[in-house]
């Protein structure tokens, strides 16, 4: 039995006959097979080649990434991913390994992890982090050190992470909203939120790129996501956002074939964006993903979180009345969870945020 690890670079295209595009598709196939298996066969958790390609492209210059495929006796058996920030957090590396169910317990996961950790260490990483979906399973549980949430303790993932010295830092709740069931209550939520927000704030929605007059304040607000969202003991550095970074984010979604829906709250007296929320998805019959939501610290307490979320969901309902929206939130993020619970989001899985800190050499 031989395990060979090959690198996958960002190819110029995802759909041609080049070796690079072939490797991208091989990696995405492995990733999708593992994720769909983890979700009990639910294929809506798969990503398209194009989505992956656009995401990879957008990270060039922003992060130093390693993408690998493990071949077990010449056949794809696992995939590795590691990413170290280039703009901030340059000593922090995210790592993720996935092994096909048919190839487990043969050292593939450890081989992928050893390779990623060693190479990221060489590039200066001293903190390693992993974001892992922990699907419900019977048996003992492990509580979050934050005091909020717990995960199944007896899984292969937990065993592998602990073997590598990772510690659980935080638990996220993955939850899902079914629009058809939620829509009847949305009008009442909107009326209530707007009654609190008006006339000081007004809500705007759009599809695609931000209008020019909203770019500067929206970019500034994006930066606050890295400092204002609860991060427990998870090491991170404040992100700097400008118009170009906002544009790169938009490109990463639009070039992947996704539709981007935004709702913002604008302070009428200044014209500044003070709250925003984002939905991204491939379109009807595909899931929608809730990306960042944030209300500026000086503008909290006016139900702007609910106002922007409900406006975006109503905009989505016009396009995809049967849509499903997925979101991940820290279990200790009570303000955000309260909004989501009121809207009708229901828990589908727990996400563990794991970390291993090494002292700098
Ligand atoms: C976690 C995962 C990557 C392990 O892959 P794998 O190829 O089976 O792992 P390995 O064979 O290299 O095992 C390495 C070590 O992890 C631990 N381990 C892995 N699977 C285990 C299991 N089912 N039970 C107990 N320990 C396990 C053991 O310590 C093992 O070493 P050992 O075989 O010498 O006892 C795989 O189960 C997987 O892809 N799961 C779903 C995706 C995922 O959650 N990825 C994130 C993982 S952090």
Automatic annotation (TrEMBL):
SUPFAM superfamilies listed in its UniProt record: Acyl-CoA N-acyltransferases (Nat)
Record key words, sorted: Transferase
CDD domains the record matches: NAT_SF
One GO molecular-function entry: acyltransferase activity, transferring groups other than amino-acyl groups
Coiled-coil ranges from the UniProt annotation: none
Pfam families in alphabetical order: Acetyltransf_1 (PF00583)
Domain N-acetyltransferase: 28-184
Protein name: Acetyltransferase (GNAT) family protein
Lineage of the species this protein comes from: Bacteria, Bacillati, Actinomycetota, Actinomycetes, Micrococcales
